[in-house]
């Protein structure tokens, strides 16, 4: 069987987000081959009429139902009670969405307030997690698949004004400043 | 100024944004320096109800006072690249606030991508993970317990009611007219708190700008002598 | 969205065989329309290179992984349930060992992160199970007898420093904060 087909099976069987590293390990092929297969699968599934889609969150991938069919899916499953986001939660999630993976000092530089409690609260809710980043001394935070899944976007770069806010001219300077202070 | 309620803002940057909007100003260094006093006025209100946030507000208050002094006496601050200004920081914050409103719309649509309900996986044979023996559990538990050690509460910072810059200018001006000369140290000797010192300093800068006073200082951090002009 | 797309979503999320009658009810369309959509979906999926297939068993329909990819699927499941525990998995198992039976919110408050996926994984590996506790509204989790036997202890209180760590002050303070926040 082709790599594409095996990848499709694994994402289907997993039922949860899988890291690229994990997929490479299971398929036992080169990373670049896996990345190509993932790109092919996205092309195959991520079109308007598909009932199944592939979502990417930075380094993770998951096969999910098309959010446009959420009503049909809800007829089946008990709809989840996820509740509203408070303003501090929303603000923090927004910055982490556009600038993640991001350290706490960087986040606090942008928001101007201490963020330890709000980060903890979002991590317990499963909307933010520590990114897998063995290089850094400070932990970096990123949003979870759970969050993306709820927004109904396939990829962070589909968020409104992503390019502008992701590569914001002041961010890099501000963050460089934070890092200088920290070092 | 009193139209902004304490519970209506998230942090110092949010307060700044609201003050700017209230005054219908653009975000520039000049307009920020204009609302310094209004901002400082919120500090003592914070102390009663949201003291845990005081540190964050003091950071921004310092930047504002710096801006204010720079606007009053620009010749003391040679042009140099100082990195992103408070105005830049605030503009950036504003953009994320706007973005967060769009994110909230996405979130509230409940257009959720659902996952599969997986059939239960049966684990046929039990394998003890190599790193989950009693010694591993003990080590991991000890690490966790030390991580959970409750943090010492922040030292309580007290900020008492701030005297307005305007009142302070008058008071310094009156003293100066009487004595012709005075030491800044004496001026702030009766200050009850840091805000008071900041306000005195700002008042002094205003007097200098208006050519009512000048200052002699022998060395950096040395005593400042204030003279009547 | 088209009926085909909604059907695809429903079969995907269901994860079990669905009767034609049930599908008709969920989609709220005519039986003949549903049958046509099922035929279309079979055409779309049931080809040699597909990683997912649709099978029909008399009156029931199910979406499954292509059996030709069983090796890849088994590789994945084996990787899930063997090998060393990740650091978050080990920490979760530790808290369940020393503080169980424990609810998920309590566990998450102690660890400061969402634990649903990790708990699921530990349960698949047979290390943790839901405790029999008919009184509680929330399920409580505890380690399995099998795990204890493999550790060579007869009872949880034989774990090293159990008395000291089981009721450690830092843990009770953390939990007290949860209850305060929840109330």
For this entry, give a set of tags.
heterotrimer, A: 183 residues, alpha+beta, 3-stranded antiparallel sheet, 10 helices, B: 229 residues, mainly alpha, 9 helices
Characterization of this structure:
The complex is a heterotrimer, with two copies of chain A (183 residues) and one copy of chain B (229 residues). By secondary structure, chain A is an alpha+beta fold. In chain A, 52% of the residues lie in helices and 13% in strands. Chain A has ten helices and six strands; from the N terminus they run αβααββααβααββααα. Chain A has helices at 3-14, 20-27, 31-45, 70-74, 87-99, 104-111, 116-124, 145-151, 162-166, 169-182; strands at 18-19, 52-57, 60-65, 102-103, 128-130, 140-143. A three-stranded antiparallel beta sheet of chain A has the order 1-3-2. The radius of gyration of chain A is 18 Å and the shape is globular. The termini of chain A are far apart. The model of chain A has no long low-confidence stretch (mean pLDDT 89). Chain B is mostly helical and 229 residues long. Chain B contains nine helices and three strands, in the order H-H-H-H-H-H-H-E-H-H-E-E. Chain B has helices at 12-22, 29-34, 36-49, 54-72, 86-108, 134-147, 165-179, 184-187, 194-209, and strands at residues 181-183, 213-217, 224-228. Chain B has a three-stranded antiparallel beta sheet. In chain B, a hairpin with a 6-residue loop joins strand 2 and strand 3 (224-228). Classes of the chains: A alpha+beta (183), B mainly alpha (229). Chains A and B meet through strand 3, helix 4, helix 5, helix 6 and helix 8 of A and helix 1, helix 4 and helix 5 of B.
